[in-house]
Fold this sequence. Notes:
Blueprint: H1 2-18, H2 49-85, H3 91-112, H4 122-140, H5 148-179, H6 190-195, H7 197-209, H8 215-236, H9 240-243, H10 246-254, E1 269-271, E2 285-287, H11 315-327, H12 334-343, H13 350-362, H14 366-375
Antiparallel strand pairs: 1-2
Amino acid sequence: MGRLSSELVQQARLPAVLGTAVGPMNSPATSPNGASTMNDQSGPRPLSEGEQTLISVTAAAVGVLGLIGFVISFATVMDAAKPTFGPLAFLLPLGVDLGIGVFSALDIVLARLDMRVRWLRFIPWTLTAVTVYLNVAAYATGPGGPNWFAVVAHAILPGLWVVAVEIGTHAVRKRANLANPSHRLDSIRVSRWLLSPVPTFALWRRMVLWEVRSYPEALNRERERILAKTDLQDRYGRLWQFKASRRERALYKLGELAPAGAPVQAEAVRLTPPVPPSTPKRPALTAAPARKSSSRKPRKTTRPAIAPSEVDDLMPLGWQVAADHDARGVTLTRDRLRDAVRQTGRSISTDRAGALLARLRTEAGPAAENAEQEAA
């Protein structure tokens, strides 16, 4: 019971530190590809009563438009089909126009269920083209020459029906994608494509290949990639792709190579529970049991360590994460600290997570400082 209350208190304090509403630390907030989905939980905006009324009126108007086109073309198509179908000639315009309506409605329903079949849209298009041809043929090959007024009049109504159905299908599919954010890939603005087409194509390609569905997140990764590339060029020169180590090149391709870094390896530590208010002692950070020594030595790195002041803005959040892991009895490591911070929507590299973990090991948290002040 005490552990549960401690977790609830820590989770209640976390939104005040971040300034945003977040869930529990141990709740899944990342998609299978590792991208944060904290900001993708919002679905489509509910329609107001006025908007629902407007949509109903528009749908009724589209239905009336299709009915008018059916009535106008019915007699013309039936007369053109009498030499072939005889007394059953009336079934041809009825079947064609009914097929247009049925397949158009089926396309809209499948789009609403996010199960749209893309080739299905060509069926009402083909049936509409058949209707237009049957109507136009009767007036384009008359004895007195083509009657262009009749040709245009009989062709425009089926065309308007197809346009209206396509617009409705697009609107339904758009709301279906908004209701399923995991299937939605943010679009890049047209102005960026016009001003910088080649880098924008490279950015879009990375979004597709690495399943980065958030455009702001893709921009942040692109900035980190450019800074990492600049550091590699400063360190190895123009031929950095040949002089850099294979690990650095792999980290650069994966987007895990930060501009400036701390040591690549960090020890796993276990944080002691926060000291109660009545105890004036500060909580000590005890190191985890030493791992078995292996024959492989850690690779030395010449990358400069991050200054302690560069993680000052993450210290309050770091103490919250440390308290949460300690309450659950989980050892806090650099990777776990990095993942927990990213789950809250903040951006942090692996090297900054190592520097933040080092600060947490050497400094006391807010709970210990409050306890010491009360004891004094």
